[in-house]
Design brief:
The chain has six helices and three strands. By secondary structure, the protein is of the alpha+beta class. The longest helix has 41 residues.
Length: 176
Amino acid sequence: MADENEEVKQSGGGKGLIIVLVVLVVILLAAVGIGGYLLLSSGILNGQNQNGQQQVQNQESSNSSETYKASINDLVLNITNAKGREKLMKLSFSIKSTEPSIEALVEEYKPEIVDSVIAQISSRSSEELLTVGGKALLKEELLDDINSIINEVTSNNDDVKKNNVKQILFTSFVIK
């Protein structure tokens, strides 16, 4: 008899644990559902944001049909992974611009541009840089930084348009 009473008490404690787990799962599913709805309604998940950016880019490129390129080649950088271990990164990229003198500008102000690249890459982990989203974010921030550098150094020259760098193209992106 005493053994049966102990078994009844033990099985009752398990029901309480199951109820708590079910409630936690329901709360988790509700949170995921609400988060997904908010992301979808803001346009992040369904691509509305990207389509708008592509349309703006297409309009800008149609306004100025000629593009010019300059390259930054073979930058070797130290980066860290999430565990704090250092890795090497080799990076080369091209800069597309509507400015005919972009190659001369990039060559003249290469130290400022390289410094900006080093600052952007140093603030990221290797895992982040290996994702498609991480590379896209890096391109956007490099584009903004390079445009601001060129805008600053050509502020006295009215012949050079503001924000003339339109695209960054990675030609080499290796992490070891």
